[in-house]
Amino acid sequence: MKKIYSSEVKSELEKTVLNNQPFTKDDIVSLPAPVQRYFRYCGYIGKKKMSNAKIVLEDVDFISNGKQLKLRSEQYNFVSEPARIAYLSSKVMGIIPFEGRDKYQNGKGSMIGKLMKIITLFDVTGPKMDQSALVTFLAEALIVPNVALQDYIKWEEIDSNKAKAIMNYGGIKVEGIFTFNDKGEFIKFETNDRYMDKGNGVIEKERWTAKVENYIEKNGIRIPGRMKGIWNLSKNDLVYFDGNITEINFDNSNV
After folding, report:
1. 58 confidence band (pLDDT: 50, 70, 90)
2. Global pTM?
3. Gap between the Cα atoms of 164 and 142, Å rounded
4. What is the pLDDT of residue 123?
5. Do residues 88 and 102 lie in contact, with contact meaning Cβ atoms separated by under 8 Å?
6. Where are the alpha helices (DSSP H) in the chain?
7. Domain boundaries, the chain
8. 8 A C-beta contact, residue 164 and residue 176
9. Model confidence over 91-122: pLDDT tens digits?
10. CA distance between the termini of the chain
11. CATH number for region 2-248
12. Which H or E run includes 247?
């Protein structure tokens, strides 16, 4: 699965055209006020617009179908033609290898997980997965902020700390609300457009939240240091993904 992941990432990298233009004040003037504040607070004005990003998370607490794993996540996000390709790896009980791949590429979403490279735990594709993968890409738009300036995303201001983003791509429309604190940090994304795989072939739409926190400064840019994925279920919230961001590198040329 790692070879497949690397091949898929490589195919996207080969299509990538690096952008040497910097973010300017004029670029963000039409964005909602809290989104503009985020760009300024994080230090992106004057920095080069990125075409892709590699994001690595370590020590991730991950829950799938009631089973909990500690895993590592590595992903690439691409801007001009939206794509998000993630590779998850772990050792069940410290010895049994687990691999997962979660991706949105060429307008399609898919998620697969295997034990010992041969036992398939889950393999999800189809229109519901396409939509879920697209809204996950949208949730991470401000972590790769050149995404926020693309024509496939439209913004609506809600108030001084909230903005709605609407994304149309590949015949699918998704939306969600970004929340910011008074400093300018993006702290939360909420949507009703994501489907939850509940096992046994049951896939149902549930409210979903992504949270980011623990901002740190690196190379003159403030980036989040932790990310969570949360299902807001009727009885309780399920934090199924909680990990530390150890690497965010922009404009990668190889895997």
Report:
1. very high
2. 0.95
3. 13
4. 86
5. yes
6. 2-15, 25-28, 33-42, 127-139
7. 2-248
8. yes
9. 887 788 999 999 999 999 999 989 888 888 88
10. 14
11. 2.50.20
12. strand 237-250
